[in-house]
Amino acid sequence: MNDTTDQTKDQSAEKNQLVDPALLEILVCPVTKQPLSYDRSTNELVSQAAQLAFPVRDGIPIMLIEEARDLNAEPQP
Amino acid sequence: MIGRRRARALAAADYPNFLDELIANELASRLELIERQFEKTLVVGQAAPVLLDAIGQTAKVGPVVSYNNVVHDCEWLPFKDNSLDCVIAPPGLELVNDLPGALIQINRALKPDGLFLSAMYGGQTLAELRHVWLLADEEITGGASPRVAPFIDVRQAGNLLQRAGFALPVADTDVLTVRYDNVLALMAEIKKMGFANPLSGRAKMFSSRRIIGLVDEYYKDLFSDDDGRVRASVEIIYLTAWCPHESQQKPLKPGSAQKRLADMLTTEKD
Prior knowledge:
The complex is a heterodimer.
Chain A: H1 2-9, H2 21-26, E1 37-39, E2 44-47, E3 52-57, E4 60-61, E5 69-70
Antiparallel strand pairs in A: 1-2, 2-3, 3-4, 3-5
Chain B: H1 2-11, H2 18-32, E1 41-43, H3 49-56, E2 64-65, E3 84-89, H4 99-109, E4 110-121, H5 127-141, H6 154-163, E5 167-180, H7 183-192, H8 209-223, E6 230-242, H9 261-265
Parallel strand pairs in B: 1-2, 1-3, 3-4
Antiparallel strand pairs in B: 4-6, 5-6
Helix pairs in contact in B: 2-3, 5-8
């Protein structure tokens, strides 16, 4: 829990917060329960199996299907 | 639906948290009684801050994963199989669309011999309010409308845990009586807690002044105390269950007895 508060404080210093590695270890794709890979450039957790990318905001992974980006969808103009 | 409403309610300044406090203390004290240390603990769903504080202070758990550090949906848990030592579910889990499915996912995410500890609102909760709405609806529209969402029954809760694959399930209940000035104050508080009627089959129009008046009147007639304040029941079901592990006690297989019961019952005469 302390990690989260520390990360929020450092928010101005670094824009793309990293997810706590201990958390990454236990997270899987909520749809397929397959492993996720972290994409540093977009700051997303990518599930290849479900073709979904879950956003990370302020170091907090948003593991909601309705918030995820569909990898097969056309890029937004 | 409940999830979004709860999030808004929890953030509001006038959120009534007396039940959360009570449940938080009870869950924390139950956790204290267990002679185990739980490394990876998840508080599933949107928990009240008092609950997270109470759990964190028990010294039984390591860093807690919650909605605050991983935003998740109880029906689509993003946690690896066999990755958690303890899952704590505050009230709200019983209101998801697919409770058996959510429990199965929790069971899978737990390590063998991992603990599931939960508090849910039980079937007697707001029984008075449900009764009164039924009377009023019948009188005005001639039929019933789902006004109070069904809550889970304590026996069903135990069965559900077993169906989801948990071992050694224990369920017990606590019924409280909460008193209000009148039924309107009660309904306002339910709304503030983010638990207003979530059923899709509910009446899709505002309740008329007449029906509200009737509800108020019936509630006063049937469930008021001498001082004019009205009573409402809140049933809290506490559930404890474990992810199966070979170290846990199990019944012996049929036919594995070493001695015949008849031998034990007949007294030796010779």
